[in-house]
Write a structure and sequence with these properties.
0% of the residues lie in helices and 66% in strands. The chain is built from no helices and eight strands.
């Protein structure tokens, strides 16, 4: 299993009545074995709160150098969970050490979006 430092950079959200922060810096570790991956880390979320997360996923689809799949996990630091861990899920595409995740709107207090991160 290969584990690498994982740097979170930014998130973009679908139009919403809520104003979300775009710069969402953070750090974690992303581990891979074949098409499977898992990660843990901490970042400054789109509300400006600290969020811890743990997730895992599978990227079985390969389109040239891009691996595509899904992830699921838990995250804290959001109002809808009252600060407690809540579920998260979405899609993840990786091109080498560049990773983009996308997630659907979870409830009326959230927005769909995408985030970019890097491993090195």
């Amino acid at each position: 299993m290969d584990c690498l430092p994982h740097i979170h950079v930014a998130a973009i959200h679908a139009p919403s009545e809520v104003e979300y922060k775009t710069f969402t810096p953070g750090i974690g570790v992303l581990c891979r074995k074949s098409d499977f991956f898992g990660g843990v880390g901490v970042y400054s979320n789109s509300h400006g709160n600290r969020s811890f997360y743990a997730s895992s996923g599978w990227q079985p689809i390969k389109v040239g150098p891009v691996a595509i799949g899904a992830f699921a996990g838990v995250v804290d630091g959001y109002r809808r969970g009252g600060g407690k861990f809540v579920p998260m899920a979405g899609l993840m595409a990786s091109w080498g050490h560049i990773h983009v995740i996308a997630w659907p709107r979870a409830d009326k207090e959230s927005a769909a979006g995408a985030a970019i991160s890097f491993t090195f």
